[in-house]
Design a protein that fits this description.
By secondary structure, the protein is of the alpha+beta class. It has three helices and seven strands. It starts with a strand and ends with a helix.
């Protein structure tokens, strides 16, 4: 769990999350991102993110588990090797907006569980860095549109 602050209001943060077509502007490994069905973030929607070739990024499909604009969003990834869940809580605190992001990464199967245990000293810091980098990028997008 990490908390970030921005001068952008909660509505601008939500617009940055919802404007998935603009994600390639701020995520250096993303070539394209789409929301299915197009429009507003809603439970059941899918965000498809496609990586730039040779960027080290991965193609990801995020399932929207919960969407309560402009204060709460939960995204999930169901991969054959892991399940991930990211919870965004957006709250105004005085003149700033706080975004608290909680990310969980769970292995699928015994082989991945052993791998995660063996590599946990590397996986946890990498996950934290990824959450930090992605959230800061989204907040830059929110500040641009605010």
């Amino acid at each position: 769990t990490q908390t970030f602050s921005t001068a952008a209001p909660p509505e601008a943060v939500w617009r940055a999350l919802e404007s998935v077509g603009r994600w390639p502007e701020v995520f250096p490994t993303v070539a394209a991102a789409t929301l299915e069905p197009p429009g507003k973030l809603a439970a059941g929607s899918i965000i498809r993110s496609r990586a730039l070739p040779d960027s080290g990024g991965a193609d990801l499909d995020y399932r929207v588990v919960a969407a309560e604009p402009p204060h709460h969003l939960v995204l999930a990834i169901d991969d054959e090797h892991y399940k991930a869940r990211t919870d965004y809580r957006i709250a105004q605190d005085g003149g700033l907006t706080d975004v608290t992001v909680t990310s969980r990464l769970n292995p699928v199967g015994i082989a991945q569980s052993i791998r995660f245990l063996l590599w946990s000293a590397r996986i946890a810091p990498a996950l934290n860095a990824n959450v930090r980098d992605r959230t800061q990028a989204l907040l830059r997008l929110a500040e641009q549109s605010a």
